[in-house]
Design brief:
single chain; 251 residues; alpha+beta; 7-stranded antiparallel beta sheet; two-stranded antiparallel sheet; 9 strands; elongated
């Protein structure tokens, strides 16, 4: 694997992200950390904020050509789908059930999310939700752990899981949060600073901002939950009138 490829692979963060002490609402964050993760996520969900969360993971079979369909990749897809979900046939539409193996470019519901076969990579699975509790349940699921079995996929020591685009290699996963762009325009996010190893883009037609990071792996999901929690605290404390003085926890 050449240097031109490896230099674009995003590094996994050395530790979970947390807001710096000088950030707005830092004292509120200290109190927030005293409750458990599940309680935090449940409280944020209860506010029904206009946030949407997305998880995506991409994989390729060992020693394959990306993303070329062949007898080998068809066998890989069949074995992976059958071993990862006993009911994957029931999840498909009648027209999709006519073929045992999905055609490249085929999208279909699978394990509560959506599977795309043969876009940039042989397998891309994504899950979209407006509930942090649901997202955490997916990230902790036995089903998702199957994506981290090294001997099933293209994997190289020192690189990780190999995908078509180097920015999707390593752990091959991505988490993002989509929020209304007007929150940045009305001052609700005043004082917020996106971590330097995160990215963002604007969806003009939907008038939303998307903050994302790749290469979380199985042990850095709390970085995502911390950033989303901090965004939520800024919005909620602003609505409750506690952002300026922070005299009490709005929860």
């Amino acid at each position: 694997m050449g240097e031109e490829y490896t230099k674009f692979i995003p590094l996994q963060a050395a530790e979970d992200w947390k807001p710096l002490p000088e950030f707005t609402s830092a004292s509120l964050w200290e109190e927030w950390e005293t409750i458990s993760l599940s309680e935090r996520l449940e409280k944020i969900d209860s506010y029904r904020l206009p946030f949407t969360y997305r998880f995506r993971v991409a994989r390729n079979p060992r020693n394959s050509i990306y993303p070329k369909q062949s007898g080998k990749t068809n066998r890989f897809l069949r074995e992976f789908l059958e071993s990862s979900s006993a009911s994957w046939e029931e999840d498909r539409t009648p027209s999709q059930k006519n073929t045992r193996i999905p055609d490249f470019g085929d999208r279909f519901p699978w394990n509560s999310g959506t599977l795309l076969a043969g876009d940039e990579d042989h397998i891309r699975w994504e899950y979209v939700t407006d509930s942090l509790l649901e997202l955490n349940s997916i990230l902790e699921s036995d089903f998702l752990r199957k994506f981290w079995v090294r001997d099933r996929f293209d994997f190289l020591e020192g690189i990780g899981f190999v995908n078509s685009c180097p920015t999707n290699s390593g752990h091959g996963d991505k988490l993002s949060v989509s929020i209304p762009a007007k929150l940045a325009e009305t001052g609700d996010l005043s004082g917020f600073r996106l971590p330097t190893d995160w990215g963002f883009y604007r969806e003009e037609l939907k008038e939303r901002l998307v903050f994302f990071r790749k290469n979380f792996g199985q042990n850095r999901k709390n970085s995502f939950f911390n950033l989303v929690s901090y965004l939520a605290l800024l919005v909620i404390s602003g609505k409750d009138g506690t952002k300026a003085s922070l005299p009490h926890n709005p929860f």
